[in-house]
């Protein structure tokens, strides 16, 4: 459905926020905006036909710092976004999840 595509776009939008965040390990002090991204956000998936049929999705963002024990200066962030959204099917609300992930290295 179109909701699935809208949920995917919401997931990718969170990844774009991580990509736009500054992470400079050589700056003094170190700049790290990725670790300060919101972990839970709510987005509107569809414009309502009437004033009561809003469809919201929830983005759950997990930010994991990955380090290499052999190379103490080498690290990356793994950013995973799970977007959970409802769909009405035969008078039952069913929840679906779209997931995207990306790795980010310092600037």
Brief write-up:
The protein has 107 residues and is of the alpha+beta class. The chain has 1 helix and 6 strands.
Please characterize this protein's 3D structure.
Helices cover 18% and strands 49% of the residues. The chain is built from 1 helix and 6 strands; from the N terminus they run αββββββ. It has one helix at residues 2-20; strands at 23-24, 31-32, 40-46, 55-67, 75-89, 92-104. A hairpin with an 8-residue loop joins strand 3 and strand 4 (55-67). It starts with a helix and ends with a strand.
SSE topology:
Blueprint (H helix, E strand, L loop, with lengths): L1 H19 L2 E2 L6 E2 L7 E7 L8 E13 L7 E15 L2 E13 L3
Antiparallel strand pairs: 1-2, 3-4, 4-5, 5-6
Q: How many distinct helices? A: 1
Task: Name the strands of the widest sheet in spatial order.
Answer: 3-4-5-6
Number of strands: 6
Give me the Rg, rounded: 17 Å
Biggest beta sheet attributes: 4 strands, antiparallel
Strand content: over 45%
Helix and strand content put the structural class at alpha+beta
Describe the global form: elongated
Q: Could you give the distance between the termini?
A: 37 Å
Mean pLDDT: 90
Secondary-structure element string: HEEEEEE
Q: Which residues form runs of ≥5 with pLDDT under 50?
A: none
Portion of residues within helices = 10-25%
Keywords:
about 110 residues, alpha+beta, two-stranded antiparallel ribbon, 1 helix, 6 strands, about 50% strand, elongated
